[in-house]
Structure to design on (273 residues):
């Protein structure tokens, strides 16, 4: 069976899951292709396959902006089989089921939705201590990843068997999802508070290259300028090699506001430019 999977990854969690899923499915004799939704969305649309999947991080009970945009512009499904796998640090709400409902209207047969718990990749400045899950230390991260990999094996087995499952269908999940989508503007408020510490910046330009929305530009002197197209993926914030990118000035304290460097050293950020 030919299986195509589209994904968006911010700091590597979703890409890590995609690679694990690809390995698992190919061991069962299937052919799996991965498509990064921003770079390869057009090719993903055109490439014929037997089964289509989407992997995505959950942002306020929705997939990321590029995935939402792609979803809205998908052609008629004509009964094409689709599975959806989200990941988040805690609450998934009805993300997969909401995604399914949109694709159902386009004629797709979304037969499976589920999600996995993955390490959180940033903590909001000024939030109360211990209010939310913190960016994990390495030992904590590895335990979360081990549990996620075990569940992913079960998910892949269910998908390959064609089992039908709809995570997020319950009333409480749908109410939580609707509330998260309506209140996500609270997190959006941080988009205008990104800056770069001139004292730390080594002018490598990585943040400019890997910004998926082209929101970061560079002056002739190498200073960074942030526009109004931030999608809050926090690639720049986490993956800057010297932790020079800040979300509010208080995040200069990178011991209190730990940066998440991804699930594994071999998972690299997507460089778009």
């Amino acid at each position: 069976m030919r299986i195509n999977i589209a994904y968006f990854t911010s700091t590597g969690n979703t890409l890590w899951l995609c690679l694990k899923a690809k390995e698992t499915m190919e061991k069962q004799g299937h052919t799996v292709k991965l498509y990064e939704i921003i770079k390869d969305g057009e090719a993903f649309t055109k490439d014929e396959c037997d089964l289509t999947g989407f992997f995505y991080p959950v942002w306020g009970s929705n997939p990321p902006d590029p995935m939402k945009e792609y979803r809205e512009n998908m052609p008629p499904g004509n009964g094409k089989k689709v599975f959806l796998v989200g990941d988040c640090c805690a609450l998934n709400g009805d993300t997969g089921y909401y995604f399914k409902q949109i694709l159902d209207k386009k004629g797709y047969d979304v037969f499976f939705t589920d999600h996995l718990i993955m390490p959180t990749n940033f903590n909001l400045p000024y939030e109360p201590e211990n209010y939310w899950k913190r960016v994990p230390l390495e030992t904590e991260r590895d335990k979360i990843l081990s549990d996620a990999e075990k569940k992913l094996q079960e998910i892949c087995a269910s998908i390959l068997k064609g089992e039908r499952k709809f995570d997020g269908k319950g009333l409480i999940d749908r109410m939580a999802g609707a509330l998260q989508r309506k209140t996500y503007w609270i997190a959006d408020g941080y988009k205008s508070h990104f800056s770069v510490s001139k004292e730390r910046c080594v002018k490598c330009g990585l943040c400019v290259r890997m910004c998926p929305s082209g929101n970061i530009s560079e002056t002739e002197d190498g200073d960074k300028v942030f526009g109004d197209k931030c999608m809050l993926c926090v690639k720049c914030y986490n993956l800057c090699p010297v932790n020079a990118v800040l979300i509010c000035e208080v995040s200069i304290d990178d011991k209190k506001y730990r940066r998440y460097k991804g699930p594994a050293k071999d998972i690299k950020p997507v460089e778009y430019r």
